[in-house]
Design a protein that fits this description.
Length: 340
């Protein structure tokens, strides 16, 4: 996956944002999309990368850069099996939907606390061929039932299915600590997840969709004695800005987390070595190195301030996904992995 970072500009100010307030990438000419395309094409071809995602901030604020970049890549003969676009949807218009559909993009609409002036343009969302609605588990918001009811309302109004995309808050410096998940939250949240898993097996469509992407990733990445590459940095996950600067995560395009430049050959420097060490601080720790689910969990988020909670949640999710897998496919070697 190539993650293209455009900037931090956003028309929302969410308290649980992953980005760090006020942090900016190094100076770059964001208008020079032609040069970016010219340089990135051989890199993608050489490395066999056929998945791409565009990130902000709010990416629709950068549409004047994204559209020529993606169309330039297609014009150069590249094909992508997966194109991801995450937006709050409040700026979505027909011409955006038309282009995203023509790219066969998978569009994630992030629904936020306030459904009012900043709500997604649901009439435009309804025109997207491939999309889901993103919901975030946070402290004080650990139950999915209201989200499913909301999706039912959308389906009744627009006459088409809407699918949930659920994920869990990252306790980064950009996220207000009042949203951080706690161990007390997990005491109540984990039983709820098991209830959802049972409902999935009973045929609940929203519960099925809720786990589908997570189960797919678990089946793909979990294997005994697997490597312990970081979650967001490696051959599988390359995050760059338009100048080719590479970062430890597409949510943290900051100079102190720059791990190199894909356009310029350069040896390691104290700064890049420090950035790599930060990226690997959990996944290369003694505890993670001996953990049997490290190939899937990958140390969780290196930017998180609640690693103990994240670690416990990952182990609980593993048990739950292994149970679903055993019910739907049958026991196999993966399910014999024991987690403390």
């Amino acid at each position: 996956m190539l993650n293209v970072f455009l900037g931090y500009a956003c028309n929302f100010k969410c308290g649980y944002c992953l980005q760090s307030p006020g942090s900016l990438p190094p100076a770059q000419n964001r208008r020079n999309t032609e040069q970016f395309v010219e340089k990135i094409v051989p890199f993608l071809q050489k490395n066999g990368i056929d998945e791409i995602a565009y990130w902000g901030g709010e990416p629709l604020l950068y549409w004047s850069q994204i559209k020529p970049i993606h169309e330039g890549l297609l014009h150069a003969g590249l094909t992508f099996k997966f194109v991801k676009f995450v937006t709050n949807g409040s700026l979505l218009e027909d011409h955006h939907a038309e282009a995203l559909n023509s790219w066969n993009a998978y569009v994630v609409i992030s629904r936020h606390e306030a459904e009012g002036e900043g709500a997604p343009h649901w009439d435009k969302v309804a025109k997207l061929c491939r999309s889901s609605v993103s919901f975030l588990f946070t402290h004080g918001d650990i139950v999915a039932w209201p989200w499913f009811q909301f999706l039912d309302g959308l389906e009744q109004r627009w006459g088409r299915p809407f699918f949930p995309y659920v994920h869990w808050v990252r306790a980064t410096a950009g996220c207000d600590s009042r949203f951080y998940l706690t161990h007390d939250d997990l005491d109540h949240h984990v039983p709820h997840l098991w209830d959802m898993a049972e409902r999935r097996l009973a045929g609940d469509r929203h519960a099925r969709s809720m786990f589908e992407g997570h189960l797919r990733d678990w089946r793909r990445d979990l294997y005994p004695d697997g490597d312990s590459r970081p979650m967001c940095h490696g051959d599988h996950h390359i995050s760059v800005d338009l100048a080719g600067n590479r970062y430890g995560c597409h949510h943290s395009a900051r100079e102190e987390l720059r791990t190199g430049n894909i356009f310029v050959a350069e040896g390691p420097t104290p700064k890049t070595e420090h950035a790599i060490a930060h990226v690997e601080k959990f996944v290369k720790s003694g505890e993670c190195m001996v953990c049997p689910i490290r190939s899937w969990c990958r140390g969780t988020c290196h930017l998180s301030n609640t690693h103990d909670v994240d670690c416990r949640l990952a182990k609980e999710k593993h048990k739950l996904l292994a149970w679903i897998d055993a019910q739907e496919i049958g026991p196999n070697d993966r399910n014999s992995i024991k987690v403390p």
